[in-house]
Amino acid sequence: MRVAVAGGTGVAGRQVVEALTVRGHEPVVVARSRGVDLLTGEGLDAALASVDAVIDVSNTVTASRRKAEAFFETAGRNLMTAEERAGVGHHVTLSIVGIDRVGLGYYRGKLRQEAVVRAGRVPWTVLRATQFLEFPDQVLALMPGPVAVVPRMRIQPVAVREVAAALAELAAGPPLGMAPELAGPREEELADLARRVLRARGERRRVLAVRLPGATGRALAGGALLPAEPGPRATRTFDEWLAAETSAPDRP
């Protein structure tokens, strides 16, 4: 199969490209660095020529609901319209578990993306996955200084590589609509994971867990980002990921 990967140069996208290659498919990277712009549509028709399926792992980094909704709606509509013109048979989108239960601006953008996919004419599958194993490290990077303030949050983190493998398998199969949610093997507290990251690196920083105000804080602390139904569970644990990260020779 010839499979286009929107956002194919990002953290998840690179893993999806590798997963497709290992399975004998031909990945086509869709990214601005390859001359394709999802927000303007430039280069999309050429990139999707003779493509059988599309996996969308495109992303934007923002906490603003307005910016997130604008990005995911514009990019999603441009991509779905180009797929329809190209005769693509299957569109697969990566989304996030629990975004309909937590009122964060970024999650509203992902909900808008899902709505665009459902409204399109290309047969589709949406895979909601939990936060990546890298998530606690990313949160710590946003909180420099001797004290890292992190939200009280129950998560069930999953390896990017295993999410990528699931996306590749879904793209090669029939459209499912909303696929069963994918989560990691264990439920964890974000603050505890952040402390384990710091200990593994020998950093003497303090982690302060704080519940965010209002309904959003209650939802995060109460497990709204955990899978609500049975579904596939990945196997790589956070401790396995952390051991590999801290032993890497190029890790600062």
Summed over residues and divided by their number, the pLDDT gives a mean of 95
Uncertain residue ranges: none
Give me the CATH architecture, please. 3-Layer(aba) Sandwich
SSE series: EHEHEHEHEHEEHEEHEHH
Please identify the top-level CATH class.
Alpha Beta
- By CATH, the superfamily comes out as NAD(P)-binding Rossmann-like Domain
- Please give the alpha-carbon distance between the first and last residues: 39 Å
The overall number of domains is: 1
- Helix-strand category: alpha/beta
Number of helices: 9
Rg calc:
18 Å
Main β-sheet description: 6 strands, parallel
Instruction: Tell me the overall shape.
Output: globular
Strand order within the widest beta sheet: 2-1-3-4-5-8
Q: Work out the number of β strands.
A: 10
CATH topology name, in short, is: Rossmann fold
In which range does the helix fraction lie?
40-55%
Strand fraction equals 15-25%
What can you see in these coordinates?
Helices cover 41% and strands 17% of the residues. It contains 9 helices and 10 strands. The chain is globular, with a radius of gyration of 18 Å. Strands 2-1-3-4-5-8 form a 6-stranded parallel sheet, sandwiched between helices. Strands 6-10 form a two-stranded parallel sheet. Strands 7-9 form a two-stranded antiparallel sheet. The chain starts with a strand and ends in a 5-residue tail after the last helix. It has a single domain, classed as NAD(P)-binding Rossmann-like Domain (Rossmann fold). Helix 1 packs across helix 6. The mean pLDDT is 95. By secondary structure, the protein is an alpha/beta fold. Helix 3 links the parallel strand 3 and strand 4.
